Amino acid sequence: MQQLSPMDAAFLYLENESTHAHGTLVWIYDASECSSGAVTRKALIDHMASRVSVSPVFTRKIHRLPLDFDYPYWVDDEGFELLYHVRETLMPTGGNWADFCGLVADVHSQPLDQDHPLWEMTLVPELNDIPGLPTRCFAILGKFHHVAIDGATGMDIITRIHDCPDAPEPKVNHSADRSARKPGLREGLFRAAVRNVAALDKTLELIGAKPRPVSEEGDSQPPAVEASSIDMPEDPAGIPQTMFNRGIGNESAWDSRSFNLAEIKAMRKAVPGATVNDVLLAICGGGLRGYLAAIDELPDSPMKAGCPVNIRTAEEAGSGGNKISAIIVSMHTDIEDPLERLAAITQSSAAAKYRASQRGSRKVLDLVSIVPAQAQALLGHAVGAATRQVNRAFQFNCSVSNLPGPQQNLHMLGGRLQTIGAAMPVMNGFGLFIGLTTCAGKLSISMSSSSNILPEPSQLGDAMEQAYGELRQASKPRAAKRRRSRKPK
Q1: CB atoms within 10 A of CB 414
Q2: What is the pLDDT of residues 134-157, one digit of tens each?
Q3: Which residues pair with 430 in a beta bridge?
Q4: What pTM was computed for the model?
Q5: Where are the beta strands (DSSP E) in 46-184?
Q6: Higher-confidence residue: 138 or 356?
Q7: What are phi and psi of 98, to 5 degrees?
Q8: How confident is the model over 35-54, as pLDDT tens digits?
Q9: What span, in angstroms and rounded, lies between the C-alpha atoms of 149 and 152?
């Protein structure tokens, strides 16, 4: 039997009619070398039939216990049917990029059925004659629940379900072959009692009511948890209130724009110590600044971004589920000059990483583990109900997550993977999630929101493109600028 971890279960308990804890990866393929009739739903079903063995995520579903007296279990779906999970939808005749983004938003809006394994794939067979895309192309929308995967494990699964000409056939995950049965009532109650006793023991240690472990040398060991691993901003009261920090609706909004990854890497050289992530935050901050200023919604103080961090150890690299923490970084939306904004973000992100390292990156896992399943489930429902009318930011204004993509060429149905976008989950009070994904030398900035918050997502996409262009121009070497500015004699 495999039981969900407390952190995995938390994503399940937070779901309600408007908040869905799944992500939809948007894969776009160059179909110029595909044979006629190769890109069909049947072909995708046949392909996935040969790949479901790479991960138990594809054939196991969630089994929740009565009254949620303990965390749910992964169990085999005895009625597993691949036809249910592989779907197809068509673009409207003459559809453009905005139409495709609307299609993605519609697919992403629909919740995953917990009576089945928590994934779906939707084929969009013809995505042709759209500027910026190959003349012939198609898309696959891969929807996966966050209870099963995080960004790191999701990208690993992407690689293993694709064809890779430069690598051997994907390895079968033999854990998928082992039976995952339901626990009986008596067995479930016993395991819940053992878990709760262990949680009580951990709680006593955390609050100092139990002596700390002593090493062989006699030194008292530090407590397992001191505070949350989520790095708090220096001035929590200074978080501005924005249009993105209110209750969300049931319909998603989505847009994505792709940029040259090599140019982004070159931009960091303009500011000493800047990283690629700093550049991306500067672009996102500039895009948000431009968009909010255009609609007279720009706050005076800088917006804060919550950035998820993968905290897997080397031994946990192949494990499923979620092992994530987060740091909070200022996006300096109050700074107009792109290079000044990048310099400020470079300093802020370095300070945030330092504070997080001092507090420990895995402490949130211990904190979540001491909360009983019933309490987590009740808390999740209460949070959903209490935040429906929320109209303020908590801790940060939006999420910004960097999901490094595959480093090798990947193919599906004969098409070569060109770009990866990401529609990410949003919730009440956190109505904007920016996903950053890389593939084939391109970096995509994907913006996920709710239609009641972001009715025209293309306008935010345009603002991101403008911010990218401004930072690219400002970061060019000064010598090159001087040469171009000289007038011919």
Answers
A1: 17
A2: 889 999 999 999 887 876 677 788
A3: 427
A4: 0.81
A5: 60-63, 73-76, 86-88, 119-124, 137-145
A6: 138
A7: -65, -35
A8: 888 999 999 999 999 999 99
A9: 8
- DSSP class per residue in 219-250: PBPPPS-SS-SSPPPS-GGGPPP-TTSS---S
Rounded Cα distance, 440 and 251, in Å: 31
Which one, of 363, 368, 365, lies nearest residue 225 by Cα? 363
* Residue 168, both tokens: 């051997």
Q: Do 210 and 204 touch, CB atoms closer than 8 A? A: yes
From 19, 12, 14, select the one nearest 428 (Cα to Cα): 19
Residue 436 burial (CB count, 10 A): 23
Structural tokens at position 24: 């939809």
pLDDT band of residue 94 (cuts 50, 70, 90) is confident
Contact yes or no for 117/320 (Cβ under 8 A): no
Q: Where are the beta strands (DSSP E) in 301-460?
A: 304-310, 324-330, 398-403, 411-412, 415-423, 432-439, 442-450
Please give the Cα distance from 124 to 39 (Å, whole number).
9
CA distances, 354 to each of 230, 349, 351, 359, 414 (Å): 12, 9, 5, 9, 46
- As a whole number of Å, the CA-based R_g of the chain is 24
